[in-house]
Specification:
- By secondary structure, this protein is mostly beta strands.
- Helices cover 9% and strands 31% of the residues.
- It contains 1 helix and 5 strands, in the order E-E-E-H-E-E.
- A 5-stranded antiparallel sheet has the order 3-2-1-4-5.
- Strand 4 and strand 5 form a beta hairpin.
- The termini are far apart.
Length: 161
């Protein structure tokens, strides 16, 4: 049994900041190999958004029946973050800064931020420089969550949309 003394006075009010639609610099916080709901290999990428406490969650699904799409999406991701093509050592991805276009989709009646696509390295010059997230002392161990934490990955009709 867990030994914990709950203190109602220490409960902090929390709100979830939705990343606005548009282009944003993002930093890879973590990338882990896992399996999609349909049994395909997948990488779950957690990204911190420049200047915001919010995070984005992106799933790279390896689809044996559509290798061209999988390879294209991998190449776009690697280019955006300056990761050498073919590098599937996800431990080396943490800390890399790239950029993406964010779109909103409805989830349980609320807007949810999703990665629409990743910007090529050469197309990121017009974006503001990376800014550390608001109110976070360090990226590792940051206690932030978003509504996307509760969305299961699905390798349905378009997993990269």
């Amino acid at each position: 049994m867990i030994n914990w003394n709950f203190n109602e006075n220490e409960v902090e009010e929390r709100s979830f900041e939705v990343v606005p639609v548009g282009k944003h610099r993002v930093r890879v916080e973590s990338a882990e190999e896992c399996t999609s709901s349909k049994g395909n290999d997948m990488i779950k990428v957690v990204m911190q958004v420049s200047g915001m406490a919010a995070k984005l969650f992106h799933y790279i699904v390896f689809m044996p029946d559509n290798t061209a799409l999988t390879n294209t999406k991998l190449a776009e991701f690697w280019d955006s973050f300056g990761i050498p093509k073919g590098n599937l050592n996800t431990a080396t991805w943490a800390g890399k800064i790239g950029a993406c276009k964010v779109k909103h989709e409805e989830y349980n009646g609320e807007p949810s931020a999703k990665v629409s696509y990743f910007l090529r390295k050469k197309d990121q010059d017009a974006l503001p420089a990376w800014q550390e997230p608001k109110g976070i002392a360090s990226v590792s161990g940051a206690p932030n969550v978003s509504a996307d934490d509760f969305v299961d990955a699905d390798d349905g009709e378009n997993p990269f949309a």
